[in-house]
Amino acid sequence: MIGPESAFDIAASGMAAQRMQMDLIADNLANANTARIGAPFHARAAVFETASPFAQALDSASLDAFAVSLDDEPQVAGVRLAGLVDASEQAVDPVSQMVGLVASGRAYDADIAVLQAAKQMEIEAVDIERA
Q1: pLDDT score recorded for residue 80
Q2: How far apart are the first and last CA of the chain?
Q3: Mean of the pLDDT values across residues 60-84?
Q4: If DSSP codes are grouped into helix, strand and coil, which group holds residue 112?
Q5: Of all residues in the chain, what percent are helix, strand and coil, respectively (each to 5)?
Q6: Contacts of residue 51, Cβ cutoff 8 Å, sequence gap at least 6
Q7: pLDDT of 69 higher than 70
Q8: What are phi and psi of 44, to 5 degrees?
Q9: Model pLDDT for residues 25-43, shown as the tens digit of each residue
């Protein structure tokens, strides 16, 4: 089970990742008609990975569901930047960049919704504890 703190971490890392992707897209569009020492500018894209590799989390989890305690559960912390790659050997395609920008914006909005839901769950949990 993922607690509210983990949900906050996951959503925050997702928001940071999408912000970075949107910054790269803006950079790609701004430099679409420029050249680097005689070669056209190539679009760059970010490659992300999970902050805690799934195989490692799976290895640390117990297969016996009855023996699992909350302390034994793997901690998931979201995503992190694995690196930047040249996305294309050709010139920057503004249409695909704009599609990527819209997709990143929607993913960012989804992360905000996760943060709001986690916050609401935390508030309701505190209310239950008080009752």
Answers
A1: 86
A2: 23
A3: 60
A4: helix
A5: 60, 15, 25
A6: 13, 76, 77, 78, 79, 80
A7: no
A8: -110, 150
A9: 999 999 888 877 777 888 8
HSE value, Cβ hemisphere, 13 Å, CA-based, for 122: 13
Residue 95, C-beta contacts closer than 8 angstroms, at least 6 positions apart: none
Both tokens of 23, joined, read 């910054």
Tell me the pLDDT tens digit for each residue of 45-59. 999 988 765 555 555
Spatial neighbors of 44 by CB under 8 A, at least 6 apart, are 24, 27, 28, 84, 85, 86, 87
Q: Print the SS3 string covering 45-69.
A: EEEEEECCCHHHHHHHCCCCHHHCC
Would you give the DSSP letter of residue 75?
P
Tokens of 34: 């420029």
Compute φ and ψ for 78, nearest 5 degrees. Answer: 105, -140
Two tokens, residue 71: 């302390």
